[in-house]
Amino acid sequence: MRCATDATEILTVEAIVENRLYPFALKDAALKLIAMHDAAPRIVRYTADMKRWLLTQSILAFHFQRVTSPSHPGLTAAKLKALIAESNIVSKNTAFAHLAEMRNYGLLVDTHESGDRRVRQLRISETAETLIREWFDEHLKSLDMLDRGTRFSRSSADRRLLWYAQPRMAQSLFHDPDWSSPPQTVDAFVRTASGSNILHDLMSRVSPEKELEARMPVGPLRIGDFFKRYAISRTHARRLFDRAQLLDACGWDVGGERGDFWIGAKLIRDYRHWQAVKFAAIEEAFEWASRHVPEPIVRSP
Length: 301
Hints:
Elements: H1 13-18, H2 22-39, H3 41-44, H4 50-68, H5 77-85, H6 92-104, E1 108-110, E2 122-124, H7 126-147, H8 151-157, H9 160-174, H10 177-180, H11 184-190, H12 195-204, E3 215-219, H13 223-229, H14 234-246, E4 250-254, E5 258-264, H15 265-292
Antiparallel strand pairs: 1-2, 3-5, 4-5
Helix pairs in contact: 2-7, 2-12, 4-9, 5-6, 7-8, 9-15, 11-12, 13-14
């Protein structure tokens, strides 16, 4: 096994939030998440709400646990049904529809072409692993910004670190209400289709250099910019922003999308803490994986 990392070096939620570089790292992460959407919008939009995000990460965890431990039961429709039964995250119909979507977009493939569909083993495709690896490594880069760390270089040097870290991270966030049940201001976005992408977009517009005021102006902004970019209806986008305005989370200086758009300090603080929960889970899981991934086998010539 690899040498253990000193536990005191692992960044906690509190340490991340209090780090003076965190607003800069978080803006960088938000821009990268948006870029991932722009590169593959039809795929990424299906994980841009809390329920589907948690479901997708759980599916990935099934796969990677099987990769690192062949004796571990792999993913099947029946296993997914059991996972749903012990949680209240999504309905059975939503979960099975999500599986079908992942198959349709080539993110999940059958390991066998025949057999009972309920027990047929599934695995993620190379496309899916490329996307989750990009997502994971971009978060490691943002964490490195906080303490000049070497997480990304270590991940690049040993691709197995993702396989070991992702299931632990997913398990942590799946059961952490600070992540899965975020504050009301954040929840207003992430419970709706493409809402997470819209929230990241808004937060990427906040200047990390400025001290927070009750309302942070971000310049002109129109709802049309969002429903076109994130492939949702104008009605859906309008309803989302109406709900956020009722919470005083964001809005326009003048009614009817006129004047500069502003984002409330409470939404910014809630978002930063909520994202810090994710970053801390990735941090802990990555350092755990660094200690537990086996040393590569060196074969004799």
